[in-house]
Amino acid sequence: MKIVTVVGARPQFIKAAAVSRVLREKHKELLIHTGQHYDSNMSDVFFEELHIPKPDWNLGVGSGSHARQTAEMMVGIETILLEEKPDCLLIYGDTNSTLAGAIAASKIHVPVIHVEAGLRSFNMKMPEEQNRILADHVSSLLLCPTDTAVENLRKEGIQAGVYQVGDVMCDAVLYYSHMMETRENAYYFGQLHGLFASVPRVNTWYMTTIHRAENTDDENKIREILEALESLDAPAIFPVHPRTRGMVERLYRQREYKNIVFVEPVGYLTMLYLVRHAVKTITDSGGLQKETYILGTPCVTVREQTEWVETLKGNHNILAKTEKEDIVKKVIKTEIDWENKPAYYGDGHASEKICALLDQAEW
Ligand code: UD1
Ligand code: UDP
User: What digits encode the pLDDT tens for the residues 116-126?
Assistant: First the structure.
């Protein structure tokens, strides 16, 4: 089959790294990078480190309002689809790049395969919730990471073409955390210790990432998060997402945060190392909630709700309001049920299951 895949944002590069490796054994894949993320530490680093095939096109869309960004992507994707006439289009997750691919393809009757279908936060104010619902409703093959996702789709009347395959991010965590431990990758450890000379031993830091619109668009909310991190009993390493950078810099000018190690976004292997060896992770990232679960690091998610509800069951992941006191309270909570940790996200072979379904697909 000839498959056109659309990626554009950091987590999609990581998902594509897991799937493309398997997909290309049997099928011809062409890769469109929309250019939604473009800084080298938000894009190039993943292609290089994870050996993701070089994109066949980079639309160079960059940042912008939702409408402008999505519309520019749609025009670029449609042009390529009309030229290449692929058998189907593959999209990941819930970003504007996902939505642009879904709409551009479905309008010209190119079947859409949605990897990470069926997730819901039930918060329609989130752009991601709108993107994922719209994408699911025009997809022909809906590849769900969890049983919850299958059930969410059923409730919306979508049952045809729905399969639970496990989570491709689980594939990535298991594959790359193994690779990270091998001797050849000592390079990354060197890089890490260069970056964090002030962090002496494993299990002596907290790990933080924050980038959700609901947390970053309000200075008071970012302040609450920084104040919480500042009051913890160990340093918090904080690779700052470019969306969050301006706000953090403004607040830092008002008050020096001594317990927070602010760094640029890091590569995936470095991230896995930092998360695996952290005391806890404090985040609003979707991907990190699962990575922490799989790697066995407790997580506090600074959000009102999560799509990854399974992680909440044994307190492996705890939701916190964007308020200093609530974040600190949740971070010091210790009743976590590690005895009971089902493999909600699969066995690391979701990509193989996706490819097997593609082998049988008849559009
Ligand atoms: C996007 C996704 C979000 C996902 C996140 C992963 C949407 C609506 N949101 O959010 O679901 O969780 O990616 O990280 O698609 N910027 C740079 N350099 C870059 C990229 C972004 O400076 O390489 C800055 C720009 O100021 C930009 C802002 O970050 O306006 C936000 O970028 P954008 O891609 O619009 O959304 P994210 O917050 O990254
Ligand atoms: N990540 C990374 N470097 C960083 C921050 C995050 O490699 O500095 C990885 C993280 O481990 C996860 C993915 O990026 O695999 C999550 O991306 P992000 O939080 O930007 O998006 P989300 O998952 O919330 O959509």
Answer: 999 999 999 99
